[in-house]
Amino acid sequence: xxxxxxxxxxxxxxxxxxxxxxxxxxxxxxxxxxxxxxxxxxxxxxxxxxxxxxxxxxxxxxxxxxxxxxxxxxxxxxxxxxxxxxxxxxxxxxxxxxxxxxxxxxxxxxxxxxxxxxxxxxxxxxxxxxxxxxxxxxxxxxxxxxxxxxxxxxxxxxxxxxxxxxxxxxxxxxxxxxxxxxxxxxxxxxxxxxxxxxxxxxxxxxxxxxxxxxxxxxxxxxxxxxxxxxxxxxxxxxxxxxxxxxxxxxxxxxxxxxxxxxxxxxxxxxxxxxxxxxxxxxxxxxxxxxxxxxxxxxxxxxxxxxxxxxxxxxxxxxxxxxxxxxxxxxxxxxxxxxxxxxxxxxxxxxxxxxxxxxxxxxxxxxxxxxxxxxxxxxxxxxxxxxxxxxxxxxxxxxxxxxxxxxxxxxxxxxxxxxxxxxxxxxxxxxxxxxxxxxxx
Length: 440
Description:
Elements: H1 2-5, H2 18-23, H3 28-39, H4 49-72, H5 81-88, H6 99-120, H7 126-136, H8 148-155, H9 162-165, E1 180-182, H10 186-193, E2 199-202, H11 219-225, E3 232-237, E4 247-252, H12 253-261, E5 272-277, H13 279-282, H14 284-287, E6 323-329, E7 334-338, E8 343-350, E9 353-358, E10 371-372, E11 376-377, H15 390-396, E12 406-410, E13 415-418, E14 423-428, E15 432-439
Parallel strand pairs: 1-2
Antiparallel strand pairs: 2-13, 3-4, 3-5, 5-6, 6-15, 7-14, 8-13, 8-15, 9-12, 9-14, 10-11
Helix pairs in contact: 3-4, 4-6, 6-7
């Protein structure tokens, strides 16, 4: 706690009022509420760093108090919460008591700290938060609620249900395949970069633990890495972010698994998708299950040579390290036709995805959106549902079906290089876990 309340001269929290600092050691709740209001006053990139730091530090103070309270409820210093909960699970008359009460403080600690990560970006306290959460892991009770859904998730834990893997009606026939290569050398890949064309890469992920000894295809493993499913994640609700009924929610990983990954969801508007989330900063232990592809350390041509046919965009920052994001969801989730500001290597760890790519030279046939409500620039996203019925496309977007494209079904263990500026449409054909690496 000394690192929280003893501030160095360079600490951004010192830019907040002195009254805020006075409340921090003993009154974190009002500070969390105050900082929360500040976080929603500005766009995230414009939020003063001091308020993100206040939210984070107050959350840590609250979490530490909750941990002290939780541990104080049990007698004996050498007994794990698993053992203590087993001891407490029956009352004086031998009847079972409410197990959830014994776990409630742990749930609250995880929620408080994860909200600091998701809402405030951890504000320089990522290692401290991860340390607190990691320390909880060996203490956790292994037994969860006896509700039917939760019991089934624990018992059928080696792989995702077959019905989700087989939910792949509308698997397109590949007519215009993307060029492929098996584990090309760095020199061969750099030569390919000069063509400004996509490339399907096979055999490049065989060394990833996520594919083998620490399998992301196992619900049980993922639940263990998320503190029994307690970790919070931001989830998109709906088939695609361009749909009118699309929304977002922050839920526990266990709820995400139960609602969307191990149960059939018939209504596409009710699908859940963990999309473009920096999961590996939030849960660093998952980061050790993968590796940045060596291809991300090549030097691609400048974006200007890739973007003919597109409106000129402001330059993007030069990246020191690739930006890594997770994409995890059931069959049927869609990323609509769009472009990214960086070169991308999309790695498929679990399941399959259908991808269709259009060169920047086809932009005039793809109907990019414009500036939408609130001044949001959506010009990197097409108005078109790429797999809509031909009759609808010909009526509403008469040029779209004239656009030339290439396509592939990306399977487990494969990567897809997507050049900067290329339009791409993505649909999951099964339960799918992908990792994208943006670089320039």
